[in-house]
Amino acid sequence: MDNNIILKTKGIAKEFSGVRVLNNINIEIKSGEIFGIIGENGAGKSTFVKILTGIYTPTEGRIYFNGKEIQLETPLDARKAGIIMIPQEFNLINDLNVYENIFLGNEKKRRVFLNRNEMIRRTEELLAGLKVNIPATARIDKLSVAQKQMVEIAKALAFDSKLLILDEPTTVLTRREIDILFGIMRQLKSRGVTMIYISHKLSEVKEICDRVMVLRDGEMITIEDTDNIDEKEMARSMIGRELSQIFPEKVVPKENTVLQVENLSSVDGFIKDVSFDLKEGEILGFAGLVGAGRTELAETLIGIRKKKHGKIIIKGKEYNIKNPADALKRGIAYLSEDRQGIGILTNFDIPSNITLPSLKHYLRGILINKRKEHEKTAQYIKRFDIKAASLKSKLEYLSGGNQQKVSLAKSLDTGPEIFIIDEPTRGIDVNAKREIYFFINELVQTGISCIVISSEMEEIIGLCNRVVVMREGKITGILEGEHINEEEIMFHATGLKGVA
Amino acid sequence: MPSKSLIKKIDFEKYGSLIAFVVIFIISSFASPYFLQLQNILNILRQVSYTGIIALGMTFVIIGGGIDLSVGSMTALVGGISILSLNSAMNFFGYGYWNEIMAIIVAVIVSIALGAAAGALNGVAITKGRIAPFIVTLGTMAIYRSLALYIGKAGVFRSNSYMYPELGMGYFLGVPIPVWVFFGMAVLFHIILNWTRYGRYICAIGSNQKVARYSAIKVNFVRFISYVMVGVTVGVSAVFLTSRLNSISSTNGGSGYELDAIAAVIIGGTPMTGGSGTIFGTVIGAIILGMINNMLNMLGVSPYLQGTVKGIVIIGAVLIQRKRSQ
């Protein structure tokens, strides 16, 4: 075997109750390589990675690491071998500080006492090695998402990992933070650390990875040098067809204004003097960096955050919206970016989730008319093509895309006239994305007006009639027509253009 | 793999307490020949009805992610004051059959209203004051007991009525009245939990308060009502407890009720973290506790050791739940 090969898999396959979700995966990863894995949700990426990290045991196949065949029965086996994964949801303890997290379960001791100084020194070394400026004694909950990620990476390095697996690391990062992350990855690479990089974002895969493997329906479609494959090609092999029709044709909105916001500020100061208007049947995009105050604006509109001053005028009448119930009464529905945290109840079945905010329409006397609930749910399941074992399936057993469709149905069931959708396609695959774009387009054709908050530039550009760009709680520009392009949006979002 | 284990899990979650019930029932009937006698079974049911009624309200509180430790002290306070009001109402209305009935009705209303008020106090402190339910009800547990002691001068509240005990001691169609009320309220609470908006909302709040809030549910109000509900059940329970003995002790009336009520809910399969639960389970849980007590009595086990067994059952029930969810 080639000495340069750090990881080799031979005929890896995995079955769940007789269903093959991964079939015959053969890869050879070279030492110091950044190896990308792309594929839609359900393509088998996470199953494959879970096999490499000892969470699943493969049904068939062998794994060779550093030239020797290894058995990965438990996550501990993988960690001992030097395979460490940086999860999407960080495993850091918020109440502890950086060095305590890095040495959690692996504390340095002097006799029975903790050797605090030694741990701090090592942590500072690790962080300095990554060229990041985080104090070793900072509490985790005081760090930004990007900094937390750096701590996760430092933690992995503290374990002397040889193979680092990064699962969708950039979903929560701004472009600048992504650049920093990539800088660190290149630096680790030069130190000989091998990395597997899983992502939905093809441009990033092309930018950072040496080679990329495309998975589709559990099959290995191709492995290419990223120099020899462009993003379109990647997308094509991921979904097995052309991607051209991902966005529907834009619909011209009506003239009349349904929502007018004047000089809106929030008590907590996240929103400062925001003014904009929304036309009937319009898709109004909200772009900006993470932390620009877009979600906070939506939360102020629906009364979750307290309004300091300013007016919210709906169809010519000013309303004081104090809570989400008021907002619903005025026809405003909000679909949160944080699906699991705010959007759905994972231990509730599909009907109970969908009718939660609109339950009063499902009453007979004081009792819930469960038959009506089920009939309505069946309609939504058909309309949105929600895939579930049954109507009574709990949401925790649904995939991310299907959960998002249930959230969509839930918001729609309140009969909104103004629909605020925050990150409509975060963490879902290309096909489900496309479906959701077409749903949104259908909605505006029925006269519903949409506000779409998104960090995905293509989505903003491909979907919206006009684009509001925010920065630090203020609006820096409202773009129309040909001005809706990546450059203009970035200039306004970063404060190079527009008064911030 | 997922489908098979899923069926197992759901079955167990639904019927776990029922299986425990059947097992204990069978063991008990073999352990003592008296166990299966109708009088003994009715006795068990009557004994569990006092804390069982409170456990019905407690189910809502725990499903909503809360807890109420004050129910025992509340029972003493509410029961004591209702006896005082019974006595003064009898003075007010004078003697005679209907007059005494009127006085008893006053006492019942006072008991339930006072229970609701004491529960409302907990609810306000928890929702408006944003204090953890554990802390608030630990505080009111001390407060309600101390008020009962103060008002009752650390003695026993005694009623002057001869008819009042009929309520707690009486039978209807051969079944003790408290048992009828326990089962009747269980049916009512089951309907509230499964077939009304309120029931759906309290589950949603216990499952994820943020989701509930964003779904336009008035979270504070719904949680507040759950404490009022448990207060009402305390009021009802206090009526039967005081009428049975025609008195209630300010020192140990209702003591340990919080343990039994919470235990019934937990044994009945409602997770401490809230979000789901069944009234049926709670009823079974309460009866299981009663059967265990009964069996220990018949086997001649020291009453001082009954707490140990109860404790082990509670911890065991939670342990099984944990295993289940893994």
TrEMBL record, chain B:
Protein keywords: Cell membrane, Membrane, Transmembrane, Transmembrane helix
Localization in the cell: Cell membrane
Keyword Membrane in record: yes
Membrane topology: Multi-pass membrane protein
Keyword Aminoacyl-tRNA synthetase: no
Highest taxon of source: Bacteria
Gene Ontology cellular component terms for the protein in this record: plasma membrane
Transmembrane segments: 12-36, 48-67, 101-124, 131-151, 171-193, 221-241, 261-289, 301-320
GO MF, one example: transmembrane transporter activity
Family annotation (Pfam families): BPD_transp_2 (PF02653)
PANTHER family (alphabetical): ABC TRANSPORTER PERMEASE PROTEIN YPHD-RELATED-RELATED (PTHR32196)
Name by which UniProt lists this protein: ABC transporter permease
Organism from which the protein derives: Kosmotoga arenicorallina
